[in-house]
Amino acid sequence: MNSPAGVGRQLAWPRPLAQLAAFLRQELAAFPGRGNVMLRCVLGSAIVIVASMTLQVPELPVSLIAVFFVTQANVVLTRLVGVMLMVGTTLAVACTIGVYTLTFDYPLLRIVVASAIFFCCTYLMRAVTKLGLVFFLMALVVIYAQTFADLTDNAEALVRSVLWVWSAVSYPVAVALVVNTLLLPAEPERQLRSAMQRQLATVDARLDAVTGAQARSVRIGPPDLQRNALSLQKLLRFATMRRRYGAQDASAMLACVTAVSRVVEAAASLPDDALARDAGQIAAIRAVQGDLGSLGRAIGDDAQWPRWTASTSAPVSTAIAEVDAMQRALGALLDATAAAAPSSQSDARAPRAAGAETAAPKPAAPGTLLEPDAFANPRYARFALRTLLSVLICYVFYNAVNWPGIHTVMLTSLIVALPSLGASRRHGLLRICGALIGSGLALFMVVFVIPHLESVPGLLLMSLPVIALGAWVSAGSERIGYAGIQIMFTFALALLESFSPPSGLTEIRDRMVGILLGVGVATFVQMSVWPEGEADALRGQLASVLREIAALARANAQALSAGARASAALPLASATWAKLADCDAVLARVALEPDWREGEPERVTLLSQTVLAQSRALLVAIEAFHDESMADALEGAPADRTSPFQSNVADVLERYATQLAAQPPEARTPAVVDAAGWLAACAGEEGAARAAALSREVRRINSALIGLPRWTSGSEVPDAPAATR
After folding, report:
1. Is the dihedral of CA 131, 133, 139, 142 positive or negative?
2. What are the beta bridge partners of residue 666?
3. Residue 304, H or E segment
4. In 10 A of CB 666, how many CB atoms?
5. pLDDT value of residue 636
6. 66 assigned to some structural domain
7. Would 522 be classed as within a structural domain?
8. Do 182 and 228 belong together in one domain?
9. Is the CA virtual torsion 5, 7, 9, 13 positive or negative?
10. Is residue 176 within 8 Å of 121, Cβ to Cβ?
11. 270 lies in the same domain as 172
12. Over 80: is that where the pLDDT of 89 sits?
């Protein structure tokens, strides 16, 4: 008889299906705010469906996609996208009517002028990224409107068709703005507070495991640190965009975000077997937990936000370096808030030791509208020419076969036109997958549901579940979000484009054919004409991240030598996590880039994944080593005893980064950084426990260093990186 384990192995899914299931489980999982976005999309879409069906406003699918575009994660993004959508649509309609007026009787001239406008718009999509949505809409409407002229010779009907497009976009934008602002607002400041409270609650649970209050330890891994730091940075930026804060309030908010990030990093560095050994340690940890709880309550209180007053007791060393690091971070926050309001908090606690942070970093200056190389980089013109070529090929084919139902072929060739091959391929795959799901749902409704519909409420009952599904998917990450918009849009094109129930299945078939042809043409043109990859750019970004980590190690060494009691490199650590997130996004696109060299994408992907994994491990280990070094110095050891080791680690990382960024790359796996001498001196003193802790962090740093792969132009695929702790 087969054992249960043997039966389980026989019934296991094939590996690709298991990977797909794990990907979908991760991407479709609920997270704070996702349900709110879905509800706002569904409510706005319901209002638009009723209004369009009642007043017979055409282009309902366009209206629904406008609702989806405007409904963003918070009010700031919603208003920004809404304004750009209105401006882009208005300019596009004006350009289209101008083209009709000047070239209505000259079809060839009409196509030439429309192509020139399209080229300029796609060029500016790359050169003016902050207004990319405006120029995208202009290009989309101008080139798509040329299909109207091929269907009729009536000039008045053409102008009416274009003006209806403007109406179909404008009023849904207004509806979405009202829904997002008044009915279900998502304020970025409130989201920021909630995110910090959740992170503090996680730290509190981790400390409960250290004191023995709960048996199961809460694990905070490097991916969690990256995600947490990036979310706080984004929400802080949106909050400052939403309202103008005074200099003192802005400084206190930045200090609060910085302190929370540092506390979470310290909690992540706690060893799995960390446990308070005596009543004094437990009491000190309980005091830290009390301060964390007090900070969480202050964050949620409008009257106290963003100022905070901690307990009046002085910090007590716990002999657990990470808990002491939390105390220093909270002390730095208290100093920053006291500096922001000296009259009310000057006596809150004794001043921190010299060198502690007393002010939060200033936000970066806003960037310029144009890219620095807007008129010098030939890639922008090449991108515009590639996109125009694929659109014109689709336009010629569309007219040659006289198949009006596949007009989505032109839209698709522009929609999937993105700067890199990997991004374009992912967008195309998401468009196809979303269209297949939307078409399948539309087919099901045509066969089983529509014959029983008799009223608008029935239409809503049929449509809103599909819209909710599309909204849930679109609220996810960029790896899956666009598929949600396509689910909704393809379903709406098939069933909601006219004011009567569809009488056949040809519309569904034609939409899919147009999408498949458009993706195929756009992909072929982008691979054949000046293809753009991101593999070399990814290497440069990885090298930049390693340099940032090296700078962090050097800054920690300098702070230790100067006797600073709070890390001077906190802003640098947060910026490094943000750069790691950017590398993740680029790597996801590089993995999809087609390459004629067999195995090359897999090699680059695995090498990049290895560097990223070891970079995260290094970032966590370097911060943990600094915490242990600070505790070692506080116990009476020479302050600069561990500084040379951190400086040597920085030198090794900078050398590897230089080799990695070279063309071609010649990066060699670093050797371990010797620490035997001063570790032996530590072990010979009374602080044997501290020496063991320092030795553990040294091993973690060296393990991550030797895990950096050999990356040369002819290197073979490395083994998967081992997990490091």
Report:
1. negative
2. 712
3. none
4. 14
5. 63
6. yes
7. no
8. no
9. negative
10. no
11. no
12. yes
Cis bond before residue 306 (omega within 30° of 0): yes
**Do residues 540 and 681 share a domain?**
yes
Q: CA 538 to CA 470: how far, in whole Å? A: 32
Q: Where a domain ends, among 306, 328, 345?
A: 345
* Domain range enclosing 321: 188-345
What are the tokens at 677?
Answer: 């001498």
Hey, what are 200's tokens? 């503090």
Top-ranked range on mean pLDDT: pick from 527-541, 610-624, 702-716:
610-624
Residue 381 burial by Cβ neighbours in a 10 Å radius (0-12, 13-18, 19+): middle
Whole-number Å distance between alpha carbons of 213 and 12: 39
**Chain Cα centroid distance, residue 609:** 17
568 in the same domain as 632: yes
Do residue 160 and residue 197 come from a single domain?
A: no
Are 106 and 213 found together in one domain?
no
Least confident of 195-209, 344-358, 418-432, 615-629: 344-358
Reduced to 3 states (helix: H, G, I; strand: E, B; else coil), residue 592 is: coil
Alpha carbon distance 260, 197 (integer Å) = 9
Band (pLDDT 50/70/90 cuts) for residue 625 is confident
Q: Are 555 and 448 in contact (CB under 8 A)?
A: no
Supply the pLDDT for residue 722.
45
Confidence bin at 358 (pLDDT 50/70/90):
very low
- 510 Cβ contact list (under 8 Å, min separation 6): 403, 405, 406, 408
Distances (CA, A) of 105 to 109, 110, 155, 398: 9, 8, 10, 21
Contacts of residue 507, defined as CB under 8 A and 6 or more positions apart, other chains included, come to 405, 493, 494, 497
* 197 and 312 co-located in one domain: yes
pLDDT (0 to 100) of residue 360: 40
Stated as kind and residue range, the H or E segment containing 666 is strand 666-667
- Of 313, 345, 377, which one is at a domain's C-terminal end? 345
In this structure, is the dihedral angle defined by the CA atoms of residues 721, 722, 723 and 724, taken in order, positive or negative?
Answer: negative
pLDDT of 599 strictly over 70: no
Own/partner pairs, 455-463, CB within 8 angstroms, 24+ separation: 456/49, 456/50, 456/53, 456/54, 459/49, 459/53, 460/46, 460/49, 460/50, 462/495, 463/45, 463/49, 463/491, 463/492, 463/495, 463/496
The proportion of the chain whose per-residue pLDDT surpasses 70, expressed as a percent, equals 84
CA distance 190 to 196: 10
Q: Is residue 494 part of a domain?
A: no
Distance separating alpha carbons of residues 556 and 550, to the nearest angstrom: 10
Q: What is the pLDDT of residues 380-390, one digit of tens each?
A: 899 899 999 99
pLDDT (mean) for 7-14:
55
22-59 pLDDT, tens digit per residue, is 888 888 988 888 898 999 999 999 999 999 999 999 88
CA distance 438 to 484: 9
pLDDT band of residue 426 (cuts 50, 70, 90) is confident
Collapse the DSSP code of 102 into the 3-class scheme (helix H, G, I; strand E, B; otherwise coil) and give the result: helix
